[in-house]
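hey so i finally got around to running the thing on that chain from the lab meeting. sorry it took forever, my laptop kept dying and i had to restart like 3 times. anyway pasting the input first so we r on the same page abt which one it is
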Amino acid sequence: MYQFLSELLSITHNLSSATIVVVPPFTMPDPTLMTALGAVLALSLSTMGAATASATSAAYATASREGIKSFVPVIISGVLGIYGLIVAVILSNLLQGESELNSADGYRNFAAGLAVGLPCLASGSGISSFMLSLQYPGTTSIGEPKQAVFHNQQGEPLLMDTPHRPKIESSSMTMTVKAMMMLCFLEALGLYGLIASLFLIGK
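ok and heres what got predicted. didnt touch it at all, straight out
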C-alpha cells in the first residue's frame, strides 16, 4: 500500500512539473491571396474552355462554304472567355477596395472563381466535341472517325472512311437552326456559372 501511494505521488509530481505546450490555432489563409487566386482561376479556366471551343469552331469556319454564318460558333466560343474576364475584374476591384477582407470573403471569392471557371471549361469541351461531330459525321471521339461498311456486288464487305465533309452544309436550313440552338445551350453552361459566381461575390 505504501509503495502504491509513493508511485502515485511520483506520477502526480511529474505531471505537475511537465511543460505544457500550447498548440497555436489553425491559421486561415490570407483572404487577399484567396481572392487573387479566384480571379486567376476564373480567367484561366474560362479562357481554356474558350480556346478549346474556338479551335474546332475555327477549323469548321475555315472549311465551310456558308459565309458569315460559319463564324457564329467562333463568336459563341469566345463569349466563354468574357464570362471569366467579368469575374476576374470584379475580384481584382475587391483587392483594391478600402474595406478589409475577412476569411469568409476570401473563401467565397475563391469559390466564385471556380464557379465560373469550371463550367466555362466544361462548356468549351462540349462545344468542341459538338463541332467535331459536325465536321466529321460518325466521329466517336476526338481523332477517331467511324468507318462505314459497304458491300460489293458479290456481297463482300468493303471498308471506307467516312468522308470528311461538314455535316451542316449538306443539310437543310432546319438543321442549321438546330445546330445553332445546340451551341447556345452548350454555351449557357458557362452563363450558369457566371450567375452563381456573381451571387457568391455579392453575398
